[in-house]
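=== RUN LOG ===
request id: a7f3
mode: sequence -> structure
chains: 1
length: 158
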Amino acid sequence: MKPALEAIVVEELDALDYDLVEFHKGGSRDRPVIEVRIDRRDGEAITVADCARASRAVEARLEADKLVSERYVLQLSSPGVERPVRTAAEWRRFIGILASVNSPALDGRVEAEIVRVEGDEGSEVIVLEHPKRGELRVALSDVTDARLAFRWNPKAED
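=== RESULT ===
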């Protein structure tokens, strides 16, 4: 059921020019919880109005197709500041941003700045700049998990 649900969510978001960033179905059979994180294709920040628009479309489709119980909960939001980074296009979009990247090729998880994406489609290499290890290169296919990294800087700027 999860792949079918996810496909319907993607279809509804696609019609509104939003991308699905994360999808999770949890809860119980009687009270399923569907968590959806979306992003805009134009690169602008997700607004409350975007979330409301997408939520209405997804809710209408779920209810019309009777894919979940009547007591379902839909939680739809932006991907947040520590959003996942998966595709080559997403890596390119976030060049210059700090990311937390997990890969056996990096001997585990590292936090480094995204510098560039090299290579042809299907064989992309992510180039990162680590403060102590310098330039790191990892095949996109070797990345097991990556998210933007948020660092709180409590110092007030002058």
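=== NOTES ===
The first strand starts at residue 18 and ends at 27.
The two ends are 54 Å apart (CA to CA).
=== END ===
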